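dude i think i finally got it to work??
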Amino acid sequence: MMQRLLPFLSLIVLFVGLAIASPHFLTDTNLSSVVRQTAVINIMSLGMTVIIIAGGIDLSVGAILAMGGLLGTMAMEKGMSIPAGLLIGILTGLFWGTVNGWLTVKLSINPFIVTLGTLGIARGLALIISNGLPVHRIPPAFSFLGEGNLLGVPFVLWLLVGCALLTHAILEHTRLGRYAFAIGSNAEAAVYAGIPVAFHTTCVYAFGGMLTGLAGMIEASRLMTGQPTAGNGYELQAIAAVVIGGGSLHGGEGSVIGTLIGAFIMGLLSNGSDLLGVSPYLQQAIIGAVIILAVTVDELRKRKLA
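look at this
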């Protein structure tokens, strides 16, 4: 029980501490900024949650985010509508996620290696397609996706809640969710139980890719540019959010609420560091230390239960 409550308690302590340490933390502007800044990682992390629960991992999400945002904005630059551009970005993520899952199950290669390879392929193709140049000629109305408000609330927060509810519903109320937990707990036993492991593993990666494509379009909307170099290091933040939130890199464990808490912990660490004038280089070191601590706690817990 304490293992499950620890991320939530850490988030509360961090929130209260920053509220005391900086008078600017609790302002509407700053809190809105935190929500917008963390939305991209949050949505990516939801997809990563399902992948990690199924015993996998995806190192290519940063590159997929970049290509999704790039192709979506390029479509709008060519005269396509904003919804069409958004759909292209999401489908780009879906395509790469499906490729990751298919290669993993068909070649029987460790997903770490597969997604490390597709990271390089997707990043390289994004740079080739764009000639290394960002896309700027985007309809001004596209900025609403990342920076607009709906009913006084950042629109990305509505999107995040929708994605979280969808992910929770998949994990708790669908065959794909049940099978993801079973595959992550023991893939060999899942095969003997008659679960179509290859198909559902591919679906898990496809779902993660789809959410990453959406995150790529949100990132492009916030920057109002399609950057072929966007998303560098985002894969580590997405994995860290899942682990900090109680997910296990061994598979079979994880939750939507835990991942959201993990992502917001990292977002508050980054925001608080900025408010307190902490060096961005030190911020990276802090997040790295938090990742090691979270994994260590998980390992110690598993050894205790063994």
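Strands lie at 149-150, 153-154.
im so relieved honestly
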